[in-house]
TrEMBL record, chain A:
Residues where Mg(2+) binds: 50, 68
Protein purpose: GTPase involved in protein precursor import into chloroplasts. Seems to recognize chloroplast-destined precursor proteins and regulate their presentation to the translocation channel through GTP hydrolysis.
UniProt source species: Cardamine amara subsp. amara
Keyword vocabulary terms for this entry: Chloroplast, GTP-binding, Hydrolase, Magnesium, Membrane, Metal-binding, Nucleotide-binding, Plastid, Plastid outer membrane, Protein transport, Transmembrane, Transmembrane helix, Transport
Binding site for GTP: 46-51, 65-70, 160, 208-209
Protein name: Translocase of chloroplast
Subcellular location: Plastid, Chloroplast outer membrane
Enzyme class: hydrolase
Topological relation to the membrane, as annotated: Single-pass membrane protein
Keyword Magnesium set for record: yes
TrEMBL record, chain B:
Domain AIG1-type G residue range list: 610-839
Stretch list, region Disordered: 48-73, 97-122, 297-538, 857-905
Keyword Transmembrane: yes
Predominant localisation class: plastid
Protein name: Translocase of chloroplast
Amino acid sequence: MGSLVREWVGFQQFPAATQEKLVEFFGKLKQKDMNSMTILVMGKGGVGKSSTVNSLIGEQVVRVSPFQAEGLRPVMVSRTMGGFTLNIIDSPGLVEAGYVNHQALELIKGFLVNRTIDVLLYVDRLDVYRVDELDKQVVRAITQTFGKDIWCKTLLVLTHAQFSPPDELSYETFSSKRSDSLLKTIRAGSKMRKQEFEDAAIPVVYAENSGRCSKNDKDEKVLPNGEPWIPNLVKAITDVATNKRKAIHVDKKMVDGSYSDDKGKKLIPLIIGAQYFIVKMIQGAIRNDIRTSGKPL
Amino acid sequence: MGDGTEEVVVRSHVEETKKLVEDEQVVKNKLVGSDEVKNDNEDEVFEEAFGSENDEQEEDSKRESLFEPDDDLRLEETLQSSKDEHDNFEEAIGDLDETSSAEGGVKDLKVDNSVVGESHREAEFDSMTSKINGDKVEAGADNCFGQIESSLDVVENTEKVNSNGSNLAAEDVNMKVDNSVVGESHREAEFDSVTSKMNGDKVEAGAENSYGQIESSLDVVENTEKVNSNGSNLADEDVNMQNGNTHSVLENGIVSPKNKEHSEKAEVISESVGPVEPWDDGIEVENWEERVDGIQTEQEVEVDEGTNTNHVEKDSVCIDNESEAKINGETGVDSTSSIVKSASSDNSLNDNIVVASAGSSSPLEKSSSEEQAETEGDSNGLKPEHDLASSPNSNMESTEVCSNSGSPEVTCREHETVQNANGGHDVQQSPQPNKELEKQESSSVNIDPEIAENSHVGRESEVVNSVSPTESRSNPAALPPARPAGLGRAAPLLEPAPRVPQQSRVTQQPRVNGNVSHNQPQQAEESTTAENDEHDETREKLQLIRVKFLRLAHRLGQTPHNVVVAQVLYRLGLAEQLRGRNGSRVGAFSFDRASAMAEQLEAAGQDPLDFSCTIMVLGKSGVGKSATINSIFDEVKFCTDAFQMGTKRVQDVEGFVQGIKVRVIDTPGLLPSWSDQAKNEKILNSVKAFIKKNPPDIVLYLDRLDMQSRDSGDMHLLRTISDVFGPSIWFNAIVGLTHAAAVPPDGPNGTASSYDMFVTQRSHVIQQAIREAAGDMRLMNPVSLVENHSACRTNRAGQRVLPNGQVWKPHLLLLSFASKILADANALLMLQANIPGRPVPARSKAPPLPYLLTSLLQSRPQPKLPEQQYDDEDDEDGFDESSDSDEESEYDQLPPFKRLTKDQMAKLSKSQKKQYLDEMEYREKLFMKKQIKEERKRRKMFKKFAAEIKDLPDGHSENVEESGGPASVPVPMPDLSLPASFDSDNPTHRYRYLDSSNQWLVRPVLETHGWDHDIGYEGVNAERLFVVNDKIPVSFSGQVTKDKKDANMQLEMASSVKHGEGKSTSLGFDMQTVGKELAYTLRNETRFNNFRKNKAAAGLSVTLLGDSVSAGLKVEDKLIASKWFRMVMSGGAMTSRGDVAYGGSLEAQLRDKDYPLGRFLTTLGLSVMDWHGDLAIGGNIQSQVPIGRSSNLIARANLNNRGAGQVSFRVNSSEQLQLAMVAVLPLFKKLLSYYSPQTQYGQ
């Protein structure tokens, strides 16, 4: 918030081919009158959120330490280039000691007040085999915080894409299976209806942030299937940003969770009315009782 | 160095020409000279090395402290004459290089020989040998030393070795290195082996780190080549053989036989080489590197050494040699048969010597004396043998053997070294020299300086002798730090009782038998006399375990160089030592033997390995548990699914890995989420049920290497595991990190972090988490890496290799087996039972005798029957009844007195008032007296009445009880006094209670010193007085208090019986919490009230507190001198566990003349306590003096012998309230002090 909007120096770090594509995508955005875009990056701890941010910006803007938990506060990185502003908000890991870190979520939410999230990057690792309850809980927590709609603006980013899947599976099979299982988890966690979820059509993008990522002849970082992933990612981001869904605006109400106060407001007169009648009824019963007992006291 | 080279040359000549002892002597002389020259700087070192008597003596004194370092220094010095140790090493290396380059292979070879000789001399010290060997050799020696002494040294050594290898690059260098290694090995046997490894490295020429046993084989080859080039004497091969032999010799001391063999036949050489090669073949290079890295700790170094020895042992030749040697020693004939025999004799001698040394273990003096004695004894027993052997063998070795026999352990080493030397130099030497040497040795043993002059061998032997004492000394003193206890040698050295050589032999023989008996029945024959230590059986079993483990390691392709193997061997040795510390010699050579035995068994391939290991795999879901199991067995035992829970239930599978039976229990994956812990518990409980019958030996906890759990996300999981299985599950757990081929993540600056760093970090995180989960910070679970991916890089053998070059599967299995083996050993030695058992008794602290004594000394009233409650007072005061009689009437005689009202009082004048008050006071006094008297009378009447009633039938007594019984209507008891508090809201009212007719008196217990607003009622107190049989009063009182921290309970029961006139015995039982334990006290006291003025009591008490019982005795005497003075003295003693506390107390009381009425009272208390010679005296005095009509002055003082005391005065008055104004003074002052600074500020 209020952080300095700097010229996007890191953009020059990208290989020329990547730059071209990025410019093209941003141009597309501009055509749609989007002069700025805000990307929120969330996910469990240690999956590579910050690395992804760094990869996207092309600079080491967020400190990455493999063995230590990152800071507890969200960090926003803003870069401007040719009148287009890119805001990327890196958030702390959402899992702490086996629990969903609701505190971190609250922090993120507070950080985002009066901002609009154009795209949510939900980051997880590709090279993990299982999806567990915790994943579901994370998704549920995000849903509770930002509402179901956020998933319509979501992009599933699977990091550590450069790995060789277990023996019998091909890379494609593995990655599709993995993304399927994650998407399923998201659906279950967000409690979206099937149709609703299919409409949302969360795209999946693979990423490999490691410095050891293999590169093609244009010096672009490529996935094992030979595709350069950064342009892919940006393309997917622009796609999501420009889809018809409304961007998620985080307002005061959402942050304060004021819903709880409003809930059942309408019932108040009803209850009062009901009370009136109940009291009447009881009074009548008492009087009746007195009468039947014969002698009023 | 030039000298050294020359000497070497001489030796080579000797070898070539097979010169006799003379030549050798000359060489030795030369060597000595060179040494001396070099020594000029370091006389001590040289002397030691030479083992001259003088040196020995000096060394004896100095060696303890200086030996190791000195040796190093000396070596260095010798090599380079004057340089720092490190520098020296380096320099030495440089020298070596130089020599190699300059002198060529032949010289190098010679150098090697000389080195061997040195090694013999210093064998004990390793460093010496290195010196002798020449720079190169020295380097090796340094390495050896380094290993022995410190990991750093090892590293240096390896480096040096490398440098040597690089520099020399020639085979000669390698040869030398080998020799030096041999020497080292001889010296420290176990350690020596390490050196041998070092040598191997050197041989490898730069293979350094790997120690490159593999390379060593190559080196051997090279050596042979060099030898050939030398071609002076025996075939180069022979020389090489010697090197190899030396290695073996070093290990077993069998070098000589090998050498002989070599000399005899090239085949022998080849054999020796062969064994060497296999060692080399092992992945040892990696291991070595690892070792080097980790050898920083001394223990590790030792382990390395041990492993080295093991390697040596592995050479079958070595074992054979030992057996042979023994045979030789016993039967000279064998020795005559061949060099081999002589070698065997040497070996035997060495063994014997070793044993003797072990026995001697004592410092220099012992060593010297022992050596002498041993030499004598040996000469008696062994020498003949040696002579025989030597004569037939005509080898230096034989002579060496003799010397060895003469000298203690050191000699053994020396022998080894000598043997090495012999192997190198002496093989060709005639038996004559041997004899001479033997003689010399014997003489040297006797501490003859002349011996030094004698042939080198003699010197060597002497040196050895000297060294041996030094070593022995150093071992107890200086060495221990250098060499961890795990070293076999150290243990023998530490043995307290110097053993007679015969004993040593005996012990050796059994060992030999145990290990070697299979191979050589001859030994068995000799061993028949073996005395069986009580620990022999255990040791045998331990040895079997060791053999088993070595076989396992062998099957897994791990050499004893492997860190894990080495550590296990070390720990086994340690366990053995701990266990058999009463003099049983912990096998210095047991490693050798075990390894040799393991080799043989493995080679034979017949004896099935009686070992199976059950591994239980635990871990989060999806980390690859099933996949790991499949990898272990190299086949798909369980199907895995990347995306689903592959394993739904606990299942086990059995299979064979390298012929080792392995059972693996696969478990369903656990879930990390906190909310899933219930599921986990269910899973784990099913696992628990599954393993109930067949508990696993090892738990393998798997996690992914490439998942950075930066938070403590797995804590729940780990805690759940701890909860279900108990924290002990982690004691035998191995952490497995799967996906070990993962690329380490980028560091903070975007650069890739190193793989090792990555692994270390991850391991640390998990280990720490386990530590926390298990609640034991000492836990250090070993970590093994696992990679199940089929794309994982493999080596030629098809084994998966990790990015760091580790072949993980053998490592993992080895870790598992090692844990199991250690557990077995622990079970065997019952160490675990002992260790946890020890602290318990140690923890039980001595009972607080002073406290118990104080409570014993307390004078307690004896319980009385209700109707006798006041008897005692009667007794006490009865004697002044008569005197009171007149006063009694006095009150009645007084004229009637009318109290004045307040108004009337106000009208009185001052004097009138005073008179009135005086009069009133007087009358009050009299009245009180009268009342007391009446009360007394009444009681007496009652007593009489009761006595009469007792005689009546029962029916009447009931009436009496009724009439005499307490009020039957509950009456509220008076409120408890309010605690001193500003709290208006005192909860006293909540705890009102009634005084009912109930015989139980129950009251709350108030803690008056609590905080304001704190409800001070923390307990309940109950009392009751029973009467048993109408005669025996039993009082009971119990109190339970509980505050936030702890609960206290106090229970007291007492009863007393009167018997005879004035005698009563009371018996009491107390139970109360003392600290956190309950103390039960049973006490008994008898009072004698025979005299009016003197009452005595004696009592006994027994207290059980925790697990200790204390008994006490007390005597008490109560002296009632007059109505107003009484004194109670008591003394007693309390004892427990031989600990006695004495105490006494004195209490004197001075009362007002008319006691019950007068307020004057002075008491003096004094107490003395003596415990542990600590005398505590305390006294207090308190006096209460009435001042005027309505004021009291109370003065109190106490003081103890520590100088701490307290004085207090207290005045209370019911008038003159203005006196209280005094208290305003300090208040005012305080206020003023507050005010004055403010005014200052104001100004």
